[in-house]
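Homework help board

Subject: predicted structure for assignment chain

Our instructor gave us this sequence and asked us to write out the predicted structure in token form, then describe one feature. I got the tokens but I'm not sure how to describe them. Can anyone check?
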Amino acid sequence: MEWRAISYARRRRYIAGTALYAPPILRSTLMRFIGNLIWFILIGLWSGIAWWIIGLLWCITLIGIPVGIQCFKLSKLAFWPFGKDIAFSDKTSSVVLSILWLIFGGIELAISYLTCGIFFCCTIIGIPFGLQCFKLMKLSALPFGAKVLEED
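My token output:
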């Protein structure tokens, strides 16, 4: 039997249990969850651990404690990036900290995110993960003055 031959009511009953008939807010929440779950398995665990290790190394010195705290805050984004956005500010104090960060830890993270992003963007299915890698690459290059925002 062809799909067009089935009545609208029967089609609705047939797909009622799937995400196709879920309200839009539920669909976006479901897709964020699935994206975050796949991300955590593929990259998120190691990425978050890297942010934590770098944060701990910065916290060894008294001067580096604010940098370490920022690393701990941003590790949550590295674990679960889908459904979150980043807003950057234009403060001059954040420029000085960002230059120090690039010298002592930011370049390694940025290069690793760039490599992963290019790798994921080679396939159509991996493009959303590649875009998240590029978002985190920008954040790992300039983490100070950045705020993590929840998307609606």
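Reply (TA_rk): Your tokens look well-formed. For the description, you could write something like this. The mean pLDDT is 80. That's the kind of observation they're looking for.
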